[in-house]
Specification:
The complex is a heterodimer of chains A (about 300) and B (about 260). Chain A has 2 domains: about 220 residues, P-loop containing nucleotide triphosphate hydrolases (Rossmann fold, 3-Layer(aba) Sandwich), CATH 3.40.50.300; about 80 residues, THUMP domain-like (Alpha-Beta Plaits). Chain A has about 300 residues and is of the alpha/beta class. Chain A contains 11 helices and 14 strands. In chain A, β4 and β5 form a beta hairpin. Chain A has a 6-stranded mixed sheet, sandwiched between helices. In chain A, α3 runs parallel beside α5 and α4 crosses α5. Chain B is an all-alpha fold. Chain B has one domain. Chain B contains 10 helices and no strands. Chain B is elongated and about 60 Å long. In chain B, α2 runs antiparallel to α3, α5 crosses α6 and α9 packs antiparallel against α10. The chains are: A alpha/beta (about 300), B mainly alpha (about 260). The interface between A and B is medium-sized, with 34 and 33 residues.
């Protein structure tokens, strides 16, 4: 299969600051792909370059086989873009917004009406068509935005932090919608996210850190990279626990709040060994496969989310 | 299926239609653009009328100030239309248009046509009061007037677009309006006539707005009237047309270069 999105040594500077540098990746047609990273990792810069809003300072990017700079119009014919803050006119109704958007893609007449109805139905907006967008909740606005982007039947759907401002139920609804769209219309879905749950469900994940691509693999491969399992030990004195584990086992570890996170050999009875070795000082010991969070920490040396979010 | 060229006609119409719908939903814009100049005309016109004498203002200051008020309505409406460029950027609507396969010219053209329609319509509404100011309306006057209002409205909206595009807040626009646009209007012959041999002659000759005021004034008075330095209808319209085209091209170049967030 040909690549839906390809970049080669892509970079973008803002003044002296490099927001993105040396990013080379290839996204296959029909893939659900996540660009994962915290704020300032360069994922939004990459998103803006792919959606033709921002010109790269170095390297090249192609979407649907067309260059985002030299053939920007041809790229725009193939993409649907869902922005973090919905690109809707709050003063217009849902239907007026959809009509306006359809017209921007050259849709008209019965075809526009038919697509509008089916997109509204697919996103559960049929009874909202006459409502002003400003009267809708954030979740509903996001659904209008997605319906809008599906009207021209794009080959590549680009989404910037699609879950922002959505409650868990709306997030799940969004995920189901994206899955269905991808299945039914063979769209390539590329989303930026700082949420592991979202990245976890994608076919492949590109991890960005300080403007650089540090990994690009399936979630399973990423987890397999660590080659270890992760044990979490809780107790009243985590620092004392850490010293004990260091002395007795020598495994890499870190203290986070009241918990101790230890990278333990995969497959061994690490939980049992830790539990008996630490005795009463440890309240609980749990061992699990590494999460993407663990992988992110391992690759970048920094946690994905700030302490306040964790 | 996917072309390489941007779409033009349908996007332009869709963007124009959006401007109309928004305007109807924002009643306060009608008041701001029409009522403010009307009050200016009534208060300033009647207050200053007594102290204003001269050949150019024959027929009273209310009569002299009427075409200037029409241009103020054009200016206010065009300006309010282009403030929405900044709001569209802030609300996110604009980025949705920018990623669509529409010709960049249609983005500018849709906005300018919208501003032009609203400005000309409101100014025309005010012009219905012209007979009370001593400016009778007949077929020829109405035709010249419509042409002047449409062209002037387009030119001023394009000017507003050029000013608004690089700005990130509407406050910046108000500064530009008070510092640049209102003085240009004051010196355009809208408020007082330029006098030969004084600096006001140069100010009027170099000021693009004075040709818009001149075309509106000539639409009412005709080319036969002695209006001092005010150019005839044809030349005034020609300069306004050139101004409109230049502003349109500057706006187009600005859009192609990208907004403030892409630097």
């Amino acid at each position: 299969m040909s690549a839906a999105v390809e970049t080669n040594d892509l970079g973008r500077n803002f003044g002296p600051r490099a927001a993105l540098s040396g990013v080379t990746l290839s996204i296959r047609a029909g893939e659900m792909f996540a660009l994962l990273g915290p704020n300032g990792s360069g994922k939004t810069t990459l998103f803006r370059i792919l959606s033709t809003l921002l010109a790269p300072s170095a390297g090249m990017a192609r979407v649907g086989g067309c260059d985002v700079v030299g053939e920007a119009m041809a790229v725009r014919h193939q993409i649907g873009v869902v922005f973090q803050s919905p690109a809707l006119d709050p003063q217009l109704t849902v239907e007026e917004n959809l009509r306006c958007a359809g017209s921007l893609y050259g849709l008209r007449g019965a075809d526009l009406v038919a697509r509008l109805r089916s997109a509204a139905e697919a996103l559960g907006l049929s009874d909202r068509l006459a409502d002003r967008v400003q009267s809708l909740s954030g979740g509903l606005q996001r659904r209008v935005e997605i319906a809008k982007c599906l009207l021209p039947r794009p080959r590549v759907l680009l989404l910037d932090e699609p879950s922002t401002g959505l409650d868990p139920a709306a997030r799940e609804g969004l995920r189901v919608t994206l899955e269905r769209v991808r299945r039914e219309s063979e769209v390539t879905v590329v989303m930026t996210t700082h949420l592991l749950e979202e990245a976890e469900r994608c076919d492949r994940v590109a991890i960005l850190h300080r403007g650089r691509l540090v990994a690009c693999e399936t979630p399973a491969e990423l987890r397999g990279r660590l080659g270890t399992d992760v044990a979490v030990v809780s107790g009243l004195e985590p620092e004392a626990l850490a010293t004990r584990v260091r002395e007795m086992f020598g495994w890499p570890l870190s203290v986070r709040g009241e918990r101790l996170r230890v990278e333990v050999p995969a497959g061994g009875d690490a939980a049992g060994r830790l539990f008996s070795a630490l005795g009463a000082a440890a309240d609980t010991v749990t061992v699990g496969r590494p999460t993407l969070e663990d992988v992110f920490l391992d690759l970048t040396g920094e946690p994905l989310r700030g302490e306040e979010e964790a | 299926m996917s072309g390489k060229r941007g779409l033009f006609i349908r996007p332009t119409l869709a963007l124009w239609q959006r401007e109309m719908t928004r305007f109807v939903r924002q009643r306060n814009r009608i008041i701001g653009a029409l009522a403010t100049p009307l009050i200016f005309w009534l208060l300033i016109g009647s207050g200053l009328g007594e102290s204003f004498r001269g050949a150019e203002v024959e027929g009273g200051f209310m009569r002299y100030f009427f075409p200037g008020t029409v241009v103020l309505i054009l200016l206010f409406t065009a300006i309010f239309s282009t403030v929405s460029v900044i709001e569209d950027r802030r609300d996110g609507f604009l980025q949705g248009v920018l990623v669509a396969p529409v010709s960049r010219a249609s983005i500018v053209f849709g906005k300018c046509l919208g501003g032009m329609t609203l400005a000309a319509a409101q100014a025309a509404l005010f012009c219905l009061a012209a007979p009370w100011a001593g400016l009778p309306l007949d077929g020829a006057v109405v035709l010249r007037l419509l042409a002047a209002l449409l062209l002037g409205g387009f030119a001023l909206t394009a000017l507003g677009f050029v000013i608004a595009w690089p700005l990130e807040s509407t406050q910046g626009f108000h500064v530009m309006m008070n510092l640049v646009l209102i003085p240009l209007w004051l010196l355009s012959g809208a408020f007082f006539p330029a006098r030969a041999g004084t600096w006001t002659e140069w100010a009027a000759a170099l000021n693009p707005l004075s040709y818009i005021t001149a075309s509106v004034r000539r639409a009412f008075y005709g080319d036969g009237a002695d209006l001092g330095l005010v150019p005839s209808f044809g030349p005034a319209m020609t300069v306004t047309l050139v101004f409109a085209v230049v502003m349109f091209l500057l706006a187009l170049r600005a859009v192609r270069r990208g907004g403030p967030e892409s630097r």
